[in-house]
Amino acid sequence: MNELDLTYCEGWDPARKAAVGLLSKGAAAERDRRGEQYAVVVSAGRPWMVLEVAWGHGHWAVWLLDEQGRRTVKYDHRVLADDQIFLRHTREWRYDSAEQAEFDTGAWTRSRTFSPDGRCQEILKPKGERGGSRHTWTKADPGRLWFPMPVFGEWAFARRYHSGLSPAAAVRVTGAPDVPERVTPPWRPPAPLRPTWLDRMFRPGERFALPEMGEILMDVRPGPSLVMPHRQNDRGRSGMRRGRHRGVHRRGPPRARTRSAWPSPPSRTIPSTGAWPGSK
Question: Which residue positions in the chain have pLDDT lower than 70?
């Protein structure tokens, strides 16, 4: 592979199997500098990679495409250090035929989730969502999970995803419009879940109708002091700092109580995806 065609855009449309919301290289570079989201479709005879970037959200992801334009692998990275990205999740799909739909519920899937110290949880589903799954926990080499933060316009990192890519491959920009196309991006960077009914939950006398519980009545009482997460260190672990160190020491939000028995849900970890390029 000696040539790469780059199309800067809002993202990849899986229905049209094409880039949408075309951008000029200059417009994409400005978004990159500001931390705003954009995407790049990389082609070599056909589209084979889609890059999704949103530095403002600490997000950098790579999708690989097959000959039918279906997404087959996702490498999901997070910015956990000033000059490095960490491979947090991967997910793979294998299709039985050229006609099988992308992300078909019966497609073979494997997901991996990594921790900065190398811990890995793998979930294998040979029959997709239509069959059982196997969960394993292993240890990976942490050195294979960290990468230098890619610089806009440099494409040496792409060789991690295609062994046949020449180090001297020529790069050209295609499909650059004079005026950016106005479309809604077909993807969103990950973001924390937003709470619902937060204002109502701490309002005395507020009523809620909950499944299997019926109507409940809120009773609000003062709670203890709040301990806030301060920041992430260079390996992504959140440090805790009490509010008085930064002038935010205050009473925590009132604890909501109800007149119905409301047992606390069991703690659990929701698995995500993860793996490293070239793993089997």
Answer: 229-280
Judged by phi (left if over 0) then psi (alpha if -120 to 50, else beta), residue 38 lies in beta
Token readout for 275 is: 């793996």
Query: Do 182 and 21 form a contact (C-beta atoms < 8 A)?
Result: yes
Q: In angstroms, how far is CA 160 from the centroid of its own chain?
A: 19
Which tokens belong to 72?
Answer: 């087959």
Question: Which three-class secondary structure state does DSSP give residue 201?
Answer: helix
Where do the DSSP E strands lie in 183-254?
207-210, 214-221, 227-232, 238-242
One domain, residues 85 and 145: yes
Pair 259, 217: CB distance under 8 Å = yes
Phi, psi (deg, nearest 5) at residue 233 = -80, -170
Host domain of residue 103 = 3-173
**Considering the entire predicted model, what is its pTM?**
0.71
43 residue type, one letter: S
Structure tokens at 217: 């009545």
> Residue 208's Cα: distance from chain center in Å?
33
Note whether residue 265 is domain-resident.
no
Distance CA 201, CA 118 (A): 39
Pair 124, 238 in one domain: no
- Looking at the domain assignment, is residue 85 inside a domain? yes
